[in-house]
Design a protein that fits this description.
Helix content: 10-25%
Number of domains: 2
Number of helices: 3
Structural class: mainly beta
CATH topology of the largest domain: Glucose Permease (Domain IIA)
Number of strands: 22
Strand content: 35-45%
CATH architecture of the largest domain: Distorted Sandwich
């Protein structure tokens, strides 16, 4: 009954609209679109040579004039985006960020070493975190993130973005991704063009992990893979097979943990991916331990 209630809640949350869409007047040279909500992902364009700032901080812009602004899970309820054009003029947008209510997932009865890692495990975890951070550090001049993203796999949603996880009664970090359960060995597709910045095996949390760089610090992560079919430095295209779904790392069933990160900020993959494929609308029974 506990799992049934949880998965019904997951499906209900996935179906809710997130926020008002950010849209610019067609005549303005500053164009922004996306969901203006906590966990949101705003994409925009400006004339080449324009500088863009978000809440006072510089935003990278590609040579073609594309940019992306992440909205953190716990972001403040306002966002100011300013464009400074090459001719000396500027344009500013003040956006209201919608707040979201986050699900709480309680998982009890776990082995305690999976909740409170040992000293040796902590060393491995720190090394894992550094590998991942290094793979996301480069700001590459590519606007592949402007593409329409594909769902990397079709399956059952078993974990949603933003949920607070309480393991054996102890609060842990929020879940910054989507978990998709499917048969072990199911092919995983690249959601957009990119470059492989990490393809590594046997990590403590993530198991076999691939990270793709889609430009300007926009990366996607694919965890718990059974097989990795790409190598670091490889260029991939939207729809290419990068690995197969598995249960490596800290999880108890075959699933893909799919995350989207923008310059260190984990954002909600749901609005980026769009409507759920039909197969994702059936509740599952996989209990995840990430």
């Amino acid at each position: 009954m506990k799992h049934f209630k949880y998965f019904c809640l997951v499906l209900a949350l996935c179906a809710l609209p997130l926020a008002v869409l950010a849209e610019a007047p067609p005549s303005s040279p500053l164009q922004i679109e996306g969901d203006v909500a906590q966990g949101g992902f705003l994409r925009g364009t400006v004339p080449p040579g324009t500088r863009v700032r978000s809440n006072g901080s510089e935003v990278p812009v590609t040579s073609s004039g594309a940019f992306v602004i992440p909205i953190a899970r716990d972001a403040a309820p306002w966002l100011t985006v300013t464009a400074f054009f090459a001719d000396g003029t500027s344009d500013q947008r003040k956006l209201t960020v919608a707040t979201r209510a986050w699900d709480i997932q309680r998982i009890d009865g776990l082995p305690q070493n999976q909740v409170t890692p040992s000293q040796s495990d902590l060393i491995a975890i720190r090394e894992e975190q550094k590998k991942i951070a290094d793979s996301r550090a480069k700001i590459r001049d590519s606007d592949a993130f402007m593409q329409s993203f594909l769902w990397p796999v079709v399956g059952t949603i078993t974990g949603i973005y933003g949920s607070q996880r309480i393991l054996n009664g102890e609060p842990r970090a929020p879940h910054l991704g989507i978990d998709i359960a499917a048969a072990e060995g199911t092919p995983i597709k690249a959601p957009a063009d990119g470059v492989v910045t990490l393809a590594t095996r046997n990590l403590f949390f993530n198991g076999n992990l691939v990270i793709l760089d889609h430009g300007l610090g926009v990366t996607t992560a694919f965890a718990h893979l059974a097989q990795i079919r790409v190598i670091s430095g490889q260029t991939v295209h939207r729809g290419d097979i990068i690995g197969t779904l598995g249960k490596s790392g800290r999880t108890t069933g075959p699933n893909l943990h799919f995350g989207v990160n923008v310059r260190g900020v984990g954002v909600d993959p749901g609005p980026i991916l769009g409507s759920l494929p039909e197969a994702n609308n059936t509740a599952g029974t996989v209990e995840l331990k990430r």
